[in-house]
């Protein structure tokens, strides 16, 4: 009877903490650096001992007998040639863009940016969309038109969605000020 009581008390006396509690969200936060531990003993067992299966071959010394147990399959060049291509490789970049092409891209974008979008220009001249964005400026009229469309779309949102957006902005501001 005394033995059971001691065992029962010892379980309650030493709490188990798999992870030290802190004020940050463990699932989403990368700032899990300041633990707030309870006073007294904490049972935090060590991680399991690494085994040969979990140790990469590159980290095993050449004299280690486990290195011979792990054998990696290598393919011959004939086998690799017979395998299907899973992912297509990206095409090589072209670096033959002249100032005339850049001027034409800028002229088309400034004349009618609604018709000549970034993706259309990139496809026509065979350049990346980021290159088109760097070389051209957004037409202010088009920019105002797009912002008006976005504003009208936001006003048509339900009240609950608008409140959620406002609360999200407020939470971000609180996080940046380290207030929760």
TrEMBL record:
<keyword id="KW-0687">Ribonucleoprotein</keyword>
<dbReference type="GO" id="GO:0005762">
    <property type="term" value="C:mitochondrial large ribosomal subunit"/>
</dbReference>
<feature type="region of interest" description="Disordered">
    <location>
        <begin position="42"/>
        <end position="66"/>
    </location>
</feature>
<dbReference type="Pfam" id="PF12824">
    <property type="entry name" value="MRP-L20"/>
</dbReference>
<dbReference type="InterPro" id="IPR024388">
    <property type="entry name" value="Ribosomal_mL58"/>
</dbReference>
<keyword id="KW-0689">Ribosomal protein</keyword>
<protein>
    <submittedName>
        <fullName>54S ribosomal protein L20, mitochondrial</fullName>
    </submittedName>
</protein>
<dbReference type="GO" id="GO:0003735">
    <property type="term" value="F:structural constituent of ribosome"/>
</dbReference>
């Amino acid at each position: 009877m005394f033995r059971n009581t001691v065992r029962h008390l010892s379980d309650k006396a030493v709490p188990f903490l798999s992870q030290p509690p802190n004020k940050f969200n463990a699932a989403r936060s990368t700032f899990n650096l300041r633990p707030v531990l309870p006073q007294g003993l904490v049972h935090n067992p060590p991680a399991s001992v690494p085994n040969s299966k979990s140790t990469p071959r590159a980290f095993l010394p050449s004299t280690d007998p486990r290195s011979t147990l792990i054998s990696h399959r290598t393919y011959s060049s004939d086998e690799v040639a017979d395998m299907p291509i899973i992912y297509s490789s990206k095409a090589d970049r072209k670096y033959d863009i002249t100032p005339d092409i850049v001027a034409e891209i800028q002229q088309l974008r400034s004349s009618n940016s609604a018709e000549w979008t970034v993706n259309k220009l990139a496809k026509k001249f065979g350049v990346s969309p980021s290159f088109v964005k760097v070389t051209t400026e957004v037409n202010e009229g088009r920019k105002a038109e797009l912002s008006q469309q976005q504003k009208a779309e936001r006003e048509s949102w339900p009240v609950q969605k608008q409140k959620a957006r406002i609360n999200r902005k407020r939470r971000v501001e609180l996080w940046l000020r380290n207030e929760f």
